[in-house]
Amino acid sequence: MRRLTATLKIALRALRRNKLRTVLTMLGMIIGVGAVIAMVGIGNGAKAQIEAQIASFGENLILVWTGSMTRGGIHTGWGSAGTLSVEDAEAIQREVPGVTVISPEVRSTGQIAAGNENWFTQIVGEGADYFTMRQWPVVDGSPFSEQDVHAANKVAVIGKTIADQLYPGEEPVGQILRVRNAPFIVVGVLRAKGLSVQGQDQDDIVIIPFTSAMKRLLGVTMLRAINVQAANPLLINTAQDQIVNLLRQRHHITPGKDDDFTVRTQQEIADAATAQSKTMSWLLAGIACVSLVVGGIGIMNIMLVSVTERTREIGIRMAVGARGGDILLQFLTEAVTLSMIGGIIGILAGLGTSRIIELAKHWPVNTPPVWIIVAFLVSAAVGIFFGFYPARKASQLDPIDALRYE
Q: What does the domain layout of the chain look like in residue ranges?
């Protein structure tokens, strides 16, 4: 222990001889480790934010979209063809075990107005259970009922953005909202949710019974989607397979033919949403690794220069009894010390950068303590890896040649 302490003191003294060179050598490690810490913090924060937004959709959800179609050789995407019916939705709830509630969905956009104010927004037709499925409570008033759905009543639940735009300083509940010139009564205002994963304002929405949307506004007979909720997470995959089989049977799709619908679970949507952030994380990780390698090469270069400059010192130490192992340990300690100090500064710089981004951009940052430990150990490993060759070269010097060196 005493020997190691003495070696560390000598290493620190050697590094203090040329402070500017030491700082410039550590710069690569500082940038590399700082980039790793910042990347992990920002990446985990983004992932947590996306997962929270996906979770806000509700629990144990399975989403069924209408399929695609081909016209004139042009293949269109999901939702372009009306292939789902209300009867399909009723069959899913009736025949698929494990399904608790469903919400048939139609969706459009249009102009809405109240008094002298007007606004262009998305108009969504849903079932009465939609608000429970999506865990989206009504904070003012109440949601529309199953009776409203059966009777295709002209009632609407609006988002916070609509309430602020059309009813500034007023109580929206009970007032008339003209949706595409059709009068609807506002029965509730939804709790604010903010932006979605795609950056869309989730509160800029008018939700009405899907029957009202189909019969009174859009004049359509087919659904755009069916929202399905399973009883628990263990039943999701089974229910998904059963829904696919049921719809293929109802739509008379023969084996080998493509489905005219798409079924996705909430987890699949979450995985797709986080794929981009994972790609960016890997890109940043690659940049950080390059910085670490550059920093390690800088340490090796400076240690080789140091060996050359201190050749006579090495010869004197060997002449008074130092062994090759002592010289190896001395220079290896200097390399590791240089690398670890740079790593510590890099960790602090990465945490500071993450905090600045969090405060300036209101971006969530989450840096697990394990990554701080990993960054510290990696900086030590870089010092050992890139410092070993110069240290070994110093330990193999011939004492007589070293003493003659000028």
A: 2-52+274-404, 102-229
